[in-house]
Amino acid sequence: MKILAIADLFVPGQVMRDALHSLQPSRLDVIVWSHPDESELHQRVRQIEREGPEAVKPPDGVWQAAREAELIITHMCPIGAVLIRHATHLRTIGVCRAGLETIAVDAARDRSVSVVNVPGRNAIAVAEFTVGLILSERRNIARAHHAIVVGGWRKVFSNHDQETELAEKTIGIIGFGAIGQLVAERLAPFNVHLLVYDPVQPSAQARQIVGQHGGE
């Protein structure tokens, strides 16, 4: 199998090589989508997410390597419709992230090219961060820290007349996919009441999952 891997600052070329070695490719081209820093890379990705995968050009070296590639692996580098049509041997596009905003999915479908992503890749990190924000907001952790940094010692906050403990509180989760379910799992030990809403998740399945964590 001939593979083209497009690395970037977050998934370096050597990581791509090590991961793809097990596939024993007959040819492996690793090209770096270079940026001076992470801020610039994020700016390019945001532009792609707003305007589509054709909004930003991939590295020049991609075009030659893509012509023979059967598998293209990318993280954030865009794979647009023109590139997909150019890669006449292409069978699969692998994306090392959850979103598909950087891939011309319709163009791939028209060519019968499979697109494989990694849904829920950052789900645990996002769920933990969500619980952290809930605790910070209820307990005024960030506000109190800021007050101390600037030389104050606040004793009254916007929620000073409320109970700040999570125990017995009702918490609503809007969206009950991979992240929502992990948030529910992590909130359960706080002895909270969970309410969830998801227009896609089957209600019976959602009810069963939430019931396992003391919700409804």
Notes on the protein architecture:
The protein has 216 residues and is an alpha/beta fold. 39% of the residues lie in helices and 15% in strands. It has helices at 13-20, 38-51, 61-66, 81-86, 105-110, 123-139, 141-149, 178-187, 203-211; strands at 2-7, 27-32, 71-74, 92-95, 114-116, 170-174, 193-197. The strands form two sheets. Strands 2-1-3-4-5 form a five-stranded parallel beta sheet. Strands 6-7 form a two-stranded parallel sheet. Helix 1 (13-20) links the parallel strand 1 and strand 2. Helix 6 (123-139) packs across helix 8. The longest helix has 17 residues, at 123-139. It is elongated. The model has no long low-confidence stretch (mean pLDDT 90).
* Largest pleated sheet: 5 strands, parallel
The strand line-up of the biggest sheet is 2-1-3-4-5
Structural class: alpha/beta
Succession of helices and strands:
EHEHHEHEHEHHEHEH
The count of strands amounts to 7
Radius of gyration (CA) equals 23 Å
Unreliable parts: none
Portion in strands: 15-25%
Overall mean confidence score, pLDDT? 90
Helix fraction by DSSP (H/I, runs of at least 4): 25-40%
The geometry reads as elongated
- Number of H/I helices: 9
- Taking the alpha carbons of the first and last residues, their distance comes to 49 Å
